[in-house]
Amino acid sequence: MKQLICIATLIIICLSTTTLLAQPTQALAEADKTRIQEKADSLLQQHIALQEMVGVSAGVYYQGETIWKGGAGYRDVENQLPATGEMRHRIASIAKPMTAIAIMQLVEQGKIELDVPIQTYLKDYPRKPEGDITVRHLLGHVSGTPFYASKKEGFPSMHFNTLDEAIDLFKDRPLNSKPGTAYLYSTYGYTILGSIIEKVTGEPYADYMKENVWSVAGMPNTHLEIFGQSYPNQSRLYKKISKGKVIADKQTDLSLKYPGGGFLSTVQDLLNFGKAVLDNDLITRESLEQMGQPADVEWKGTPYGLGWYLVKDEVYGRILRHGGQQSGTNTYLSVFLDHDLVVAVLGNTYNASGPVYSLHEHLRDMAVDAEKRFAPIRSAISMSKKELKPFVGKYDFGRGQIMHISEKANLLHSKLGPYPLTPLYAEAKQKFFYRGFDGQLEFVKNDDQEVVKVIFYQQGRPVEGKRLD
Question: Which tens digit of pLDDT belongs to each residue from 207-219?
């Protein structure tokens, strides 16, 4: 059963935290760079061929240079405009680490203290009976500030002229927990942080970000998305619905959540941001160390520091990362502190978090791991819902290990115990593979063409699971 247990440990992220000082890595030869470029382009095309996204832009910064960036599909399918490496698109919650960097700059300047009540800076923000909220609480999502009260708030159409107007929407709501005692992800906490930046600097939030973060990091194409305005190379918004069909998504107004999810950017700008973090161009190493410390609360998932998810991987070392999802958007950015590596992916399709994360993992692997860099790409084929239906069911690997196979949007998904639902890609009519790690499933039929078991292969080693229904 050790092999099966490894499925779970590979599907999820191994997590812990440590100090955040980068280590040297071996330089890439030109042949390696060429291979990465060719393989990355092929991966993008495969995602588009499988209709997982309408358009995608991605890039890799490694050891002092952008070794590859590219795009595939369409940024505007109605007008047949291709998605390229210059596609400008929503980055969703990747805005949060940028706002957090701005806060830490002001901490370094003595203009903000992390552990004082936020009323020190926002005089009119109501005090809560549950306890005082601090800046540190907001940065780490442990303030108790609630998330969206409804789906309508998550996909907003109302416009707010200022951040203070946006805060008026939720500031009088009760907290979900006593500040500092529990993790609750809340974009509204970052709207508050944006207002604090305005109060202590006397500048509009967008102006401060441009002068002190985006310009310093070399991000000329990063800015707030102003509802109704258009920008060069801007992508339209799409979403994938339950039947696998892709349609136009709603054009939402992001003024409710600018500091936590209201920017447009490009892949190159995101790579430059990651490089600036690695090179301590935006904040000191000591401040980065503070950002890498999670709150002292119970963690049931990935720990969160001050603006970043914190990962310690046995192979890839210490990682700062953040993903994002909103109308028409799925994104991912990771800064690999031990490898001088940054990987960024922008997808212009909502409900595409699985493919975006998978692409990110492949790009990471190719940069750091020579064996994976030159391994052949597994080619996926399309299968209909009718063809996939016979494989849906439960499979018993013994010792209480039950794998559930389901179908969604013309893809099989596996789920083992408490671990995430993970997509499977068909390479033949009965053979499927995972993209995020070296794992494959082969379904076995009897003489009556009924599926009776599944064989899981990891690094070539088979483990059998008997079908239960």
Answer: 999 999 999 999 9
Judge contact between 188 and 283, C-beta under 8 A: no
Residue 160 CB contacts under 8 Å (≥ 6 apart), including other chains: 166, 169, 255, 256
Q: Which helix (H) or strand (E) holds 325?
A: strand 317-326
Separation CA 356–CA 436 (nearest Å): 11
Strands (E), 360-460: 393-396, 402-408, 411-416, 422-428, 431-433, 439-445, 451-458
The tokens describing 321, both together, are 């990362």
- Partnered with residue 330 across adjacent β-strands are 325, 347
DSSP class of residue 181?
S
- 130 token code pair: 């549950």
What is the DSSP code (8-state) at residue 102? H
Q: Which two tokens stand for residue 401?
A: 């290990």
Domains and CATH numbers, the chain: 29-377 (3.40.710.10), 379-467 (2.40.128.50)
CA dihedral for 148, 149, 153, 159, sign (positive or negative): negative
Residue 404 in contact with residue 422, Cβ under 8 Å? no
User: From CA 210, how far away is CA 243, in angstroms rounded?
Assistant: 41
Give the pLDDT score at 367. 92
pTM of the model: 0.86
Which residue reads 């595939």 in tokens?
A: 72
Question: For residues 360 and 345, is the Cβ–Cβ distance under 8 A?
Answer: yes
The closest of 78, 58, 77, 76 to 68, measured between CA atoms, is: 58
> If you count them, how many residues does the chain have?
469
Quote the DSSP letter at residue 391.
Answer: G
Closest C-alpha to 121, from 130, 108, 134:
134
* Token pair in block for residue 360: 């990110």
Residue 439 · residue 10 · CB < 8 Å = yes
Q: For residue range 243-286, what is the model confidence (pLDDT) as tens digits?
A: 678 899 999 999 999 999 999 999 999 999 999 999 999 999 99
112 and 200 Cβ atoms separated by less than 8 Å: yes
Strands 238-240 and 349-350: parallel
Residue 329's SS3 state is: strand
Q: What is the DSSP letter of 13?
A: P
Structural contact between residues 368 and 341, judged by C-beta atoms closer than 8 angstroms:
yes
- Cα distances from 157 to residues 205, 246, 252, in angstroms, run 21, 22, 5
Q: Is the distance from CB of 176 to CB of 144 less than 8 angstroms?
A: yes
